[in-house]
From TrEMBL:
The chain crosses the membrane at residues 30-51. Gene3D superfamilies: Dipeptide-binding Protein, Domain 1, Dipeptide-binding Protein, Domain 3, Periplasmic binding protein-like II. PROSITE patterns: TAT. Belongs to the bacterial solute-binding protein 5 family. Residues 108-452 form the Solute-binding protein family domain. It comes from Mesorhizobium newzealandense. The keyword Chaperone does not apply. It is found in: Periplasm. This is ABC transporter substrate-binding protein. Keywords: Membrane, Signal, Transmembrane, Transmembrane helix. Pfam families: SBP_bac_5 (PF00496).
Amino acid sequence: MKPDFDKILRPADTARIESAIRHGATRRELLGMLLAGGMGAALAGSVLGSATKAYADTPKKGGSIRAAGYSSGTTDTLDPAKQSLSTDYVRCTSFYNGLTSLDDKLSPQMDLAESFDTKDSVTWTVKLRKGVTFHDGSTFGPDDVVYSLSRHKDPAVGSKAKSLADQIGEVKKSGDNEVTIVLTGPNADLPVILGTFHFLIVKAGTTDFTTANGTGAFKCKEFQPGVHSVAVRNENYWKGTGPYLDQVEFFAIPDENARVNALLSGDVALIGSINPRSTQLIKQAGSFDLLTTTAGNYTDLNMRLDTAPGSDPNFVEAIKLLLDREQIKTAIYRGYAEVANDQPVPPTNRFYNADLPQRAYDPDKAKSLLAKSSLAGTRIPVVASTAADQSIDMAVLLQQSAAQIGLDLDIQKVPADGYWSNYWLKAPICFGNINPRPTADILFSLLYTSNAPWNESHWKSERFDKILVEARKERDDAKRKEMYGELQKMAHEESGVAIPVFISNIDAHSSKLKGLKPMATGGMMGFAFSENVWLEG
């Protein structure tokens, strides 16, 4: 057991050791200082270990970092309602707060709200935190909450969370520090929903999002869509603790090799989403660490059902059967993944349908289906890009499997820049990359309902929409699990979305960057790293 160095060293000696660590003293130099003071070698080594660890684990203010994400475009935004990419999530969580936030167990924690109270899961009374100010010095209050939540329902805003916000029938000020939210139907997940990225709070009346005026840990110094942002510490942050860094410059490097090289060269301190094949290179380089997050992240293959060839259900099923999921897991992700089953709810979710039969790799059956589709011998384009994690490698494996049964897939590799605005949701067959979501309801509402903003295969099912609404109302967890299980089955069987594996996200960072930990809301500490990290030394 290591001794408590504070009980062994005099305060002046402790301060001297910590100062030396802060200024980059080597272990040899630190040992020399202790030995010169008359301490034995064994005890000095043990004390030094305790002192170094204690220093490293203590958050420190100061310093600036540059960090690189993996997705960006001219549609980058500081409007929480319009966030689409991980780059947006990083910036908005730096500049704004929500009524709640989600912890590493996906449980809602109070942020700008002090409490949520309800008797029927329909009418909610929300007490708001006092003494919070926006970056422009104005006071946060009920009007800001009413405005922020209501604007999601306005079609002109173009909120990516409109399908979720449509559950809100009314939100009104009901006291000096209180709002009342009335839902169109019961939903016990409301505090969870309002802790997700899009429901961050903006100042009432805000329409200009060329900059950010939030209550968050950082102020926006500079923002250029598709280029970068510069965030500086909010000295009046209401939490009292953090942020620790003076400044964070954030931008995207879509190419993974370039992203890794930027880290290894010291140009950036943190990079998001690296290829598993890069892990050994980073480990061998020294002075860098990996942050592995197991959540519900996935890269999917999307076949639009409203146009050829996805309009032929035999073709869609054949493609799903040609995905060799075990090979994708081992060959592409080096084991940093778990096999998925063409539906978006991961095994960690309490409503996961474990009874749904796993779709297996079956080229013989795929060949039989293809014969019924009249597409054999037809050259079919499949769009892939480095923008969608490992989609090119996945497309190549699929192409090889397809060739064995006479299906000619033309892999069209397009640039990462502009991929999300030019190809995703538009090309007949392309790949997507979906970040984790905390509830089954949110996943289905955003990605699978007939009016979902990111309905990747353009699948429409009135029955699906109806069951989702009923599941949202159901307060009996057993019945709710049964309903969500049926929705997973429908997505698996009927949609044009193929999900081969759930990916373990791997980020990499300088060993001097401390405070990072896995979060189930996504990589880069649920995209909220900026508020929580500090620099050692």
